[in-house]
Amino acid sequence: MQPTRETFGNIPHSSQIIFYLLTVVTMAVFGYGVWRRFKMWRQGTPVGIKELIVGNAQQIFAKLRPGLGRLLVEGLGQKRVRGRGLPSYAHIVMFAGFMMLFLGTTLLEIDHLSAGISDALKFHKGTYYVIYEFTLDIFGLLFLAGCIFFLWRRTRRPSSIGHKATDWYVLGSFIAIGITGYLLEGLRLAWQQPTGIAAHCSPVGFLIAKSFSGLSNDSARGAHLGVWWLHALLVFAFIAAIPYTRLLHMIVGPINLFLAQPVLGKLVPVSMEEVEKTERIGISAITHFNQQQLTSLDACMECGRCEEACPAFATDKPLSPKRVVQDLKGLMTLSLGTRTKTAGFPIPGLHNDTIRPETLWSCTGCSACVKVCPVRIDPLTLITDMRRNRVGEGELSGTAATALRRMQSSSNPWGLPAAERANWSEELGAPTAKDNPNFEVLYWVGCAGSYDRRAQRVARSVVKLLKSAGVNFAILGREEKCTGESARRLGDEFLFQELAQANIATLAKYNVRKILAHCPHCLNSLLKDYSQFGGEYEVIHHTQFISDLIQTGRLKIPASDGQGNGDAVTYHDPCYLARVNGIHEAPRDVLRTALGATSKPDFREMLRSREKTFCCGAGGGRMWMEEEPKKRVSTVRAKEALETGAKTVAVGCPFCLTMMTDGVAAQNGEARVMDVAELLVERLKI
Ligand code: SF4
Ligand code: SF4
Questions:
Q1: How much distance in Å is there from the Cα of 377 to the middle of ligand 1?
Q2: Nearest to 163 by CA among 52, 302, 279
Q3: Which atom of ligand 2 is nearest to the CA of 321?
Q4: pLDDT (tens digit, 9 = 90+) per residue, 646-673?
Q5: Of the bound ligands, which one is closest to the alpha carbon of residue 321?
Q6: What is the rounded CA–CA span in Å between residue 416 and residue 400?
């Protein structure tokens, strides 16, 4: 006889009817909970979800493909959950166990319904049955192991994780479902008394059944029915609770993965028509967020990864990206929930009441929170959208407001005359695009390289290297204006657009296609911001360009003398280069050449490097803000750099150069801070 079992073996017909009635009730409670949240998400501004299913099959598939890919790789494959040691593995194990048990239960029901139509349709038997029972037995153990790990972890209360009373219910019910599932299996084997492979294909159930060997068949059947009901009630309560507890992320997480904007460093433009139509700039009320942003608030499971990665939070600023998301979620529930509306509670405002101005201005725009969020929630865009409103309402004051005014009046945040923009290059004779219209590459110097004395030395080093390699390049000189990157990240969208359009017109005049930039903020803006306004360019960082010059032999590198100064060197990855644009090997390649004077270059990595780099504190327009000396982001990062024992801290960004120099000084460190290009010039003795 083939090994098999009845789906409802030992369960009386009356119990089966009550079971199905409870299923309907459970699904109704579950459905209401999801509908309640869905109604809130819908009140955001539309994001064109319906357009996804307009067109022929091929067009629809092309539109759905990226989202489906993310669902598969990041949802089912748990790609973004990985990389956090034991908790990551525990989540993956628990998720795999849960999905397998869910799939197994679904297959069991399909088999039951099929067998109801015809016995010939029953497939839960033979080899399939043996594999099924064995697989679920093992995955049940994985599920329980994951749950127990999280129970233990929750008792330790890591500060980054949110704690609610319902969390204990969720974990407790998971564990109870797992344990009653195994008891059920053991009791079934105890009364069914299968033989051969049918008895052994559930090894855990088989061991449990042994402990019931003293029970009479009737007692085993009675206990089996009792545990079956307990298990079923636990499962019903668990399903019904999903939309009302942390488990909501199981549904909304995948939805957000599907809908989310996947490109780091890109902001959605605002048009004047939009402002005229809505009579507002940015976000001043919860319903001004778009539907995807409101949905994303419900995807947050308060894992705290964003908070752990946030430089503002790490330096005691009044900002935690997790808190921002949770506070907005709370406001959404209060202002858009039917129950609160009808109860007539006073609803707090968005700005000041829910999100304080100092929270918004603390963000360095480093994208660390966006990068680490397992379900692609984007606190940075939420913050920038709210900043836009504050700037539009004239609520930004102090040094940052001064920098914006200077960008407006003089096209640079220093407020210096355009006529002085190319003064740094006079001795070097860097050609302008006007004098050398047939250039191979345009060197975008940026405001720091043009006006900041320290960063001018970097610009001069880049020019020396370009000249040494015989590169046909040009600069825009006084025709170059600030890219407007800081203005955009601070929230002054229209100042950014004004500067961007002026620069795009200049670049079009010289038919520029390839741009070399030593500032990662300029690079990101020229690459990702300008393309939104018709400026499409190939933009490369100076370290990439120099690395290419070395590899192609255009830049002649003398053979190593085997000596060098023997100083240990570390490299600080700029956020907008490494994390936002994935450029982290080229600077290291150039550094290796720059250090080549030693037979064994002493290059030391910091604990947080490449895409996991820690901000210097200057992004998001923070470069133009005062920071309390007590605990500066740059001081924390400089400490990490000094802890490597390096005597030189290499950087690839003029903002990082300033911040790390200040940070090292604040730490009374003896290391010098140098751009990668400067170190190569030093080695080549140009
Ligand atoms: S926003 Fe993302 S990373 Fe931050 S707590 Fe929520 S789920 Fe975790
Ligand atoms: S972008 Fe950086 S500074 Fe801003 S909230 Fe996210 S992690 Fe914090």
A1: 7
A2: 302
A3: 5
A4: 999 999 999 999 999 999 999 999 999 9
A5: 2
A6: 16
